[in-house]
Amino acid sequence: MNPRPDNRGAAIDLESVTKAYGTFKALDGVSLRIEPGEFMTLLGPSGSGKTTTLNVVAGFTDVTSGKLLVGGKSVVGVPAHKRNIGVVFQHYALFPHMTVGRNVAYPLTLRGIDQGKRKARMAEALDMVKMGDFAHRYPSELSGGQQQRVALARAIVFDPPLLLMDEPLGALDKKLREWLQLEIKRIHRELGTTFVYVTHDQEEALVLSDRIAVFNRGRIEQVGTGRQLYDEPATLFVGRFIGDSTVLRGEAKSDGTGTALSIAGETVTAPRRLAGEANPVMLLRPEKLTIRRPGHATAAGANRLSGTIAEAIYLGSGSKYEVKLADGSTAIVRSPLTGESFGLGEKVELRFDGADAKLLPDDSTAD
Ligand code: ATP
Q: Is the CB of 179 under 6 A from ligand 1?
């Protein structure tokens, strides 16, 4: 979290927000506090409720129940055009018959700002998105990335305390997307406004956000920094959604010393146990697993699993391997450029330290 010193952004509070369509709950008791000036990303699979949350905040959708405050004031029942919120969608929605300049100035025209001020602010907003030379062009004369930058300028030109963005880079190619991510980050820093950003792309969420709210089936599973979600996932769903992971399932036994999982005849242990009755699984990040040819003398880590290389992916900075384990499940391992390399079908041994295994309750929704 990184609130601006001048606190120009608005806080948002959702408290037990539910949105029902008939008997189906698109949002099922969502509570979330977004700090002034924070960059918050709503991340989750398709249909998990991200867009519905954004629409509720924007005022395009009513809540069925719960509280919604923007800048500490309830906005339930306040129409969208009176909320003074900037919005950018995936599809640019620029007015095709207006020049870029008139598109960007449009929110100021609506607000009755006089022409002199309008021109100055329009130019400032276009400069902010590095489109200052394009004011006289028409949207059809711009690339997709340029149109999206104009849409962003139009959303910030009236200096809203809150900007909502719904998959704004979703229609662009990867290179352009990565560059615009950095631009959006810079604009956020310079404006000090609260940004709420919807994506289903976990890498994009990690690049952009102060914090990320992970959605699943109309609920929030966890809110935290990228690092917190990666290192300390609260649920198996979060652990699998953020970053690569290996999930070990097996017959579990817990005692005072920790937890043992028996997986197709091999046993691995972790020095912790799970509170309660839930069936534990072990989640491991790729960098916590080492991969060696079987019987390698220097292999580190107390736990050993044997497997076969099912996929070898060259990443430039190293290699990523998918290793089929004896129980049919797949482990994901990364190996540095300097390490050994392995071919498809080759037998390998994975080692890990039990202290690096995250014990989590099994969660069938993660499959
Ligand atoms: P995506 O990434 O695909 O946009 P999302 O996480 O943004 O997904 P939402 O658009 O918020 O998901 O939708 C959440 C759920 O609510 C979905 O199952 C969707 O089908 C349902 N839903 C959304 N709008 C309506 C509607 N007007 N009537 C009925 N169901 C709806």
A: no
